[in-house]
Amino acid sequence: RRDADESAIKRSYRKLVLLWHPDKHPVDRESAEGRIREINSAYETLGNPQRRAHYDQQLAAVERHASGARLDTSGIQPRMSIPREFMLCPMGYPDKFVRSVGNSLFVHSREDAVASHQDFFKEAKFSLWWCAQRNNMCHIRSQSTAQQGQRGGLHISFRLSGKEPTPETVLTPLEEPQTFFVVVASPMYQGAFRFEAAFFPGRYLVFEPPTHWRLVSEIEAGRTVTDFMLVDYACMYRYLTLEEALTPVVQRLGGERDFVSVEAIRAAEATRRYFQETLKKAVWSLEDFE
Fold first, then answer.
1. Domain J: where (predicted)?
2. In CATH, what number does 76-237 get?
3. If you compute the radius of gyration of the chain from its CA atoms, what whole number of angstroms results?
């Protein structure tokens, strides 16, 4: 239910965990473990007020698009609207982000990559380098490479075959025409943007599930995603899981050597801060730690 409150979500979560616990499915344990991962991932989103707000925003935008409604984007100014540092999140996939892996580019969820919270989002941090005197033309810089390459780091680019662009995207130093894009407001999704190759009109950066980030000339409905939310990088802490927040607390309390009580974990300042700032909960239940 779209209007389910926190208590209802928690009850459903516990019911599903009991239903799909791998110990109850010895014949097909692997499938049950997959279902548990999906259930936990959903609960991490729906049980976190800020992440749920982001999810609801995307869901509303997708429904508006499905209805055929188009937006008036004439008054939107990308230079004023886009955060200084951001994460690229494809519409309809609120748990996925464009990331660099070496000089290659992918679209990953936390489950797709083996990385800590900090390492995952470090490679998902981008900024725009606006081109002077050119309306909404820019370079998309990987912030994790800000001290590498030439002229301030590496940028999203694409390969050329002769004089024609190929779908493959990579990180390279600045080069013309491959690192030049025009950013425009999405006509379909409120708050979203899309990136068109500046010197190749009609070619857009897209997400092609499950993990591909490409430059394509035709948008294939239902197969690629052209529009992206540019999520302020300051919000990356919202995606810290309860386990990631509490593991350092347990370690500091001596958990690697001995049993640590739930009461001690609850009383820790880091625990209180996580619940207050990330989960937006002033009063906690022991159930949250079980």
1. 1-59
2. 2.80.10.50
3. 21
**How far is 149 from 158, CA to CA, in rounded Å?**
16
* Domain extents in the chain: 76-237, 240-290
- Report the distance separating Cα 180 and Cα 84, nearest Å: 18
Other Cβ atoms within 10 Å of 101 Cβ, number: 13
pLDDT, residue 283, reads 42
Q: Is the dihedral of CA 20, 22, 24, 25 positive or negative?
A: positive
Q: What is the share, in percent, of the chain residues with pLDDT greater than 70? A: 92
Most confident of 20-34, 68-82, 170-184, 257-271: 170-184
Q: Render pLDDT for 190-220 as a digit per residue (tens, 0 to 9).
A: 889 999 999 999 999 999 999 999 999 876 6
Question: Over the range 191-228, which residues count as b (16 or more CB within 10 Å of their CB) and which as e?
Answer: bbbbbbbbebeebbbbbbeebebbbbeeeeeeebbbbb
User: Tokens at residue 123, please?
Assistant: 């490679």
Ordered alpha helix ranges (H), the chain: 6-20, 29-46, 49-66, 78-81, 117-122, 242-252, 262-267, 269-277
C-alpha span between 290 and 230 (Å, rounded)? 35
* Longest pairwise C-alpha distance within the chain: 66
- Give the H/E segment covering residue 118: helix 117-122
